[in-house]
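Summary for the steering committee. The consortium agreed at its last meeting that each partner would contribute one worked example illustrating the joint modelling workflow. Our contribution is presented below. We chose a case with several input lines so that the handling of multiple components could be demonstrated. No manual editing was applied between input and output; the record is shown as generated.
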Amino acid sequence: MSVLSSQFKPTSYWWEAAPPIDGTRAAPDGNYDVAVVGSGVIGLNAALALAEGGRKVVVFDSGKIGSGASTRNNGSIVPFHFLHQEQLEARFGAEVGARVARMFVDAFEHLLKVPKRYGFDPMIKPYERFFLACSPKHYAHYVADAALEGERGLGLGWKPIDKAELERRTGVRGYHGGLHIPNSLAMHSGLYIQGVAQACIAAGVDLIGKCRVLKMRGGGGTTTLVTERGEVRAREVVVATNGYSDGAVPYLKQRLIPARLYLSATEPVDPKLMERFFPDRQLADSKRSMGWIRPTPDGTRLMVGGRGGMMGNDPEVHARKLYQDMVAMVPELAGIKLTHCWYGVIAFPMDFLPHVSKVDGIHYIVGCCGVGMCAGTYLGNRIGNRILGAPQADSATAVDDLRFPRIPGPSAMNRLYSRLGIEWYNLRDWWDLRQK
Ligand SMILES: Cc1cc2nc3c(=O)[nH]c(=O)nc-3n(C[C@H](O)[C@H](O)[C@H](O)COP(=O)(O)OP(=O)(O)OC[C@H]3O[C@@H](n4cnc5c(N)ncnc54)[C@H](O)[C@@H]3O)c2cc1C
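What follows is the complete predicted structure of the assembly.
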């Protein structure tokens, strides 16, 4: 039996309700105060702040507007980085670690204000979230994480729960306990980006999709952008190309490792099964190659995600793998077919932290890894404010002073590093799971 529906599509499920647009103009209109390269969550939020501050702004994207990772993701809205406070402090010291952890809470609060301010509905819903421990060692980490968070964290209310309680609360069996995260939200990423793009249009931003920026040349306080539809000059440039960064931005190519994450959507699921396993609840396992399941915002279908590896890029192959992961987590879901499977590209800096930097007059904002919807909204807005000359209170970020390390070796190797990195994670998962 095929696990793919006869209507299977290799495109983002979010695009069904919110198809990305080509843009508002076919070509640039003279010169601009600010040019933004990349129309994801970061680029659009930066453009919005700048246009509201009275600047003439253009946004370029090599694909349709918002069609990068920002409309291909899981839509989770969480007040934390995937490196929890303990790891942030261990890597960067107590002061920086605490500052960065705090920034993710501020970013979470900031994102929630955006739809209200611009009057759109991205279907934000509260979901309780359970992380499922695949080994006793993983459960011990959850216990330690929750203790640290309770002791000197930000009051996020994380609670470890043992195997029996996990089974009672989720119906899911075969794990060694879990971590319960109460204050987590999720949204429809397509509607969110559509709402921000519409706010940009209302503020007068020129959006030019399917127009790659090929090269940038600086000099005399302005930058010339050579694009697929001609040259344009701008006094300031914001680059927010993240995992899709190409030869136009060698500075980023030397500093980011791109990685594909895969996501799929199922056909409508029996409401009784949804009520039993996914009543406004997301499940994610503790493996480094994490797999996760969430309900769609209307509660009728499931979305199943995970990392790729050395399996090539064929969405159908990944769909079959995600189906197996789904059934391994909740065997009762066997037989439910997948209607969509797609990937998005995110980018990992060497230190796993977001980076904002200004080099040769160009502002770069990248590296939000798998947690970019809140942080990207916030950082885009802050750097927009900074260019407008806003006070520190509205423009400083916790990552301003961080060094942005260069990845050793030629950047042509980065895709290979990415695949090897994922395989290394898979190998470590396999090792951990042997120790049951
Ligand atoms: C499957 C998946 C699940 C995820 N789940 C979550 C989640 O639940 N919660 C969360 O917060 N985050 C999640 N993320 C991460 C989140 O999607 C990203 O961190 C975020 O979207 C990055 O936004 P961005 O603006 O930096 O880049 P993108 O949205 O990737 O935008 C970059 C844009 O730059 C354009 N571009 C690149 N080069 C050029 C050029 N030369 N000229 C013109 N345009 C160019 C690209 O076409 C692209 O549209 C997930 C990501 C994936 C892939």
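DSSP finds 13 helices and 18 strands in the chain. The chain has a mean pLDDT of 92.
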